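A.,

Following up on our hallway conversation. Structure tokens first:
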């Protein structure tokens, strides 16, 4: 039987140096009044000037909301929705990193429903189409410009929560690598390694055999179409990330293409154990999402390898290596991702609690190719705490 495939891309995806100039035309096709959602840093930076110039040239009236704050606390999102409601925009333009793009999606959702946002947590709980979103990433990246999810922090919950629905997929994604030029090394590294994690976790996710198995989910597991994007993404990010840190424009372009492709892959396939572990670790250490995911990814790859050897070999081929976990570890260290959980302040005594919290994130754990049991997870976390991949090599993992 042929493999099933799912793809839910935006209506328009533009990629390449200078495509930001198409922002005006793209938004004008959707409405007359736009709200640009960005953050305080980017409000004074060149990408915003490029977008507003393009909107002006296309005759689109626009306002700027620059109040996006990291981690998107629910009260800040609700306040932004109230502010946006008074402006009654036809289109929301998200401009920035994943935080601004997610904020744009949440404002669009908040404008389109009277229900509290908390009613939409989880998968397939968004009641209908939202105000259209045009997403313009300035990091490469989260892939949020093409994904059906927005992540926020609810003070009522210890962990970040996701709202996932095909209704949250932006109508257009405008991916201009030139907008990432000059971004600091840490922003570049954490965003880029997050993209690699999206691609690797999408490529090695479980496969659900029938459409009936997939229908209830937004993130359905790996499939014929996500596989193509995932491998493409792994090769692009692998080839470009070191050069992107040095701000080489050609490398920036590779990583932007990679993060977009990774977004298209995980938008249907979903992510898995590295993301499940990052949630409790990020909440404890207050470290950026990409830092945690990038630190954990090689350990998760080594842990998963016995359950998906052929797939890991494909990942290796895309990276030009026969030891993909080691290659990802070297790449992460080279670009400045910390080498161990101890280095980011996790205490050895916390590992069991972290394992329990991660196991509770059923959606991500169920997507992982190797069954995750408490003992195995504790061994993985011990290795990541020490910053030593060796105990997770396939032979030892079978003991
Ligand atoms: N919706 C999704 O599909 C998805 C996927 C992964 C992560 N996320 C979310 O994305 C967020 C992380 O996004 P991020 O890694 O892009 O970081 P970010 O959006 O939080 O931005 C980090 C910092 O980088 C700055 N910045 C952004 N672009 C810049 C540029 N071109 N030059 C200089 N500085 C720049 C920002 O102003 C900010 O200070 C997290 O909240 C995470 O939960 C969402």
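Then the amino acids I'd put at each of the 399 positions:
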């Amino acid at each position: 039987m042929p493999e099933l495939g799912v793809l839910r891309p935006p209506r328009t995806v533009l990629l390449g140096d200078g495509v930001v100039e198409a922002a005006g035309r793209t938004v004008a096709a959707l409405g007359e009044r736009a709200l640009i959602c960005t953050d305080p840093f980017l409000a004074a930076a060149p990408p915003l000037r490029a977008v507003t110039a393009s909107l002006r040239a296309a005759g689109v009236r626009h306002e700027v909301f620059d109040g996006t704050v990291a981690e998107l606390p629910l009260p800040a999102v609700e306040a932004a929705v109230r502010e946006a409601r008074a402006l009654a925009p036809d289109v929301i333009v998200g401009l920035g990193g994943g935080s601004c793009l997610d904020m744009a999606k949440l404002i669009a959702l908040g404008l389109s429903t009277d229900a509290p946002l908390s009613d939409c947590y989880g998968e397939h709980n968004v009641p209908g189409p939202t105000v259209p979103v045009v997403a313009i990433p300035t990091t490469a990246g989260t892939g949020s410009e093409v994904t059906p999810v927005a992540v926020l922090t609810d003070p009522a919950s210890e962990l970040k929560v996701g709202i996932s629905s095909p209704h949250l997929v932006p109508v257009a994604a405008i991916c201009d690598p030139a907008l990432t030029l000059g971004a600091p090394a840490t922003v570049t590294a954490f965003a880029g390694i997050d993209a690699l994690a999206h691609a690797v976790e999408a490529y090695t996710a479980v496969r659900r055999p029938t459409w009936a198995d997939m229908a209830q989910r937004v993130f359905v597991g790996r499939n014929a179409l996500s596989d193509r994007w995932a491998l493409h993404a792994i090769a692009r990010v692998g080839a470009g990330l070191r050069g992107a840190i040095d701000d080489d424009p050609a490398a920036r372009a590779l990583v932007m293409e990679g993060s977009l492709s990774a977004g298209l892959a995980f938008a249907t396939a979903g992510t898995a154990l590295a993301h499940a572990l990052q949630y409790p670790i990020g909440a404890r250490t207050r470290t950026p999402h990409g830092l945690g995911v990038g630190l954990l990814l090689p350990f998760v790859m080594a842990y998963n390898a016995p359950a998906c050897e052929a797939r890991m070999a494909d990942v290796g081929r895309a990276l030009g290596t026969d030891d993909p976990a080691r290659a990802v570890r070297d790449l992460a260290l080279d670009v400045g991702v910390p080498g161990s959980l101890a280095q980011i302040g996790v205490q050895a005594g916390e590992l069991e609690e972290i394992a329990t919290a991660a196991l509770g994130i059923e959606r991500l754990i169920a997507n992982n190719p190797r069954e995750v049991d408490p003992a195995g997870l504790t061994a993985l976390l011990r290795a990541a705490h020490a910053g030593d991949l060796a105990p997770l090599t396939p032979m030892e993992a079978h003991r």
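The pocket of nicotinamide-adenine-dinucleotide is lined by residues 39, 41-42, 70, 96-100, 102, 138-139, 141-144, 147, 149-151, 179-180, 182-183, 187, 190-191, 194, 289-290 (CB under 6 Å). Curious whether your intuition agrees with the design.

B.
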